[in-house]
């Protein structure tokens, strides 16, 4: 054994990804995949690509996501014409298994609410969820949301991640 490597071990697989603030979302879209900020992310022994977090080491993981939605009518004509009085805000966390024969990902978690927001003032709603799941090497997890154009693009309010808890 190499004495220089004694006492050193690989870091626990983990990732924490804040929202990528520069993305734009259409106002009339169903569930939309969120992209995350690679520059300000922490990713260890996992990989990230095109909105998806990929597992490199099989094991039991805790997967979490928080998304905040925000609406403030500034009085401009674009937002003033959008009716947010009965808005459905849903967060989905998907699991794409390497073992599945189909490419259709499974819903791992879902949360949200139908908000009755006031069109004339500031409104905010946050959805947060997490759970443990066994993930195989090559599996992917990712987050979709409804009404993505309302996402709060601040890293402290909208983020996603995972950490390996055991084998």
Automatic annotation (TrEMBL):
Main location class: membrane
PANTHER family membership: TNF SUPERFAMILY MEMBER 11 (PTHR11471:SF54), TUMOR NECROSIS FACTOR FAMILY MEMBER (PTHR11471)
GO molecular function annotations of the record: cytokine activity; tumor necrosis factor receptor binding
Family matches, as InterPro entries: TNF_CS, TNF_dom, Tumour_necrosis_fac-like_dom
Organism from which the protein derives: Nothobranchius pienaari
Membrane-spanning ranges: none
Family to which the UniProt record says this protein belongs: Belongs to the tumor necrosis factor family.
Protein name: Tumor necrosis factor (Ligand) superfamily, member 11
Cross-referenced Pfam families: TNF
Domain THD intervals: 13-165
Record localization: Membrane
Keyword set, alphabetical order: Cytokine, Membrane
Gene Ontology CC: one annotated term: membrane
Gene from which this protein is expressed: TNFSF11
PROSITE patterns, A to Z: THD_1 (PS00251), THD_2 (PS50049)
Swiss-Prot/TrEMBL GO biological process terms: immune response
């Amino acid at each position: 054994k190499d004495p220089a490597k004694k006492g050193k071990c690989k870091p626990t697989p983990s990732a924490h990804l804040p929202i990528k603030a520069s993305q734009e979302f259409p106002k009339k879209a169903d569930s939309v995949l969120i992209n995350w900020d690679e520059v300000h992310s922490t990713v260890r022994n996992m990989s990230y690509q095109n909105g998806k977090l990929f597992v490199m080491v099989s094991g039991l993981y805790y997967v979490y996501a928080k998304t905040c939605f925000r609406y403030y009518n500034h009085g401009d004509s674009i937002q003033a014409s959008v009716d947010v009085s009965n808005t459905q805000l849903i967060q989905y966390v998907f699991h794409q298994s390497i073992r599945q024969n189909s490419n259709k990902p499974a819903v791992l978690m879902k949360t949200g609410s139908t908000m009755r927001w006031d069109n004339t003032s500031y409104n905010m709603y946050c959805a947060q969820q997490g759970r443990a799941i066994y993930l195989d090497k090559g599996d992917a997890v990712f987050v979709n949301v409804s009404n993505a154009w309302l996402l709060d693009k601040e890293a402290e309010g909208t983020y996603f991640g995972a950490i390996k808890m055991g084998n």
